[in-house]
Amino acid sequence: MYKFEKLDVWQLSLEYLDLVYSISDGLPRNEDFNLKSQMRRAATSVALNIAEGSTGQTDAEQARFIGHAIRSLVEVVACQRINSRRGYPTESADTAKTEEMGLTLVRKLQAMRNALDPSRKWVREPGGTYPVDAAEALTGDEGKVSVEER
Is 30 part of a structural domain of the chain? Predict the structure, then answer.
């Protein structure tokens, strides 16, 4: 068994990938080479970056790959928002489960990245206002805080 196969985040990323495939199956045929493909590639990239980052590298290098996984996960979320905006079906049980699992996965990935490289500041933009947590980032709720307040 490889090291990455023992990671909870990798196991969760596979479940997330399965849900994304299920959701993308419901997209219209004209999205086969656009949103459908993009969602699947981004969700696949989450799992692949977790695996690639686990290979005997330094903690900083593994943290970099976890960062790639986080960005890929956010890309899937962005695709889901586009699906909704285009009026594609978004009210399925799989969609709701994907939202919930995505939040869990992004939190676990962020915690893992922070544990691997705690001395690094991950927010690079100075003085911006950001949602307090990932749930607010996805739902658009108002509880916002500036970077300096955190």
Answer: yes
The answer to whether position 132 is within a domain reads: no
For residue 25, the enclosing domain spans 3-118
**Separation between Cα atoms, residue 27 and residue 37, nearest integer Å:** 10
User: Strand 144-146 vs strand 129-131: parallel, antiparallel, or unpaired?
Assistant: antiparallel
pLDDT higher than 70, residue 136: no
Q: For residues 68 and 71, what is the distance between their CA atoms, to the nearest angstrom? A: 5
Across the chain, mean pLDDT equals 85
In the chain, the N- to C-terminal Cα span, in Å, equals: 40
Count of structural domains within the chain: 1
The CATH number of the domain holding residue 80 is: 1.20.1440.60
H/E segment holding residue 118: none
CA angle 88, 72, 33 (to 5 degrees): 45
Q: Which amino acid is at 144?
A: K
Q: Is 60 exceeded by the pLDDT of residue 81?
A: yes
* Separate counts of helices (H) and strands (E) for the chain: 5, 2
pTM over 0.85: no
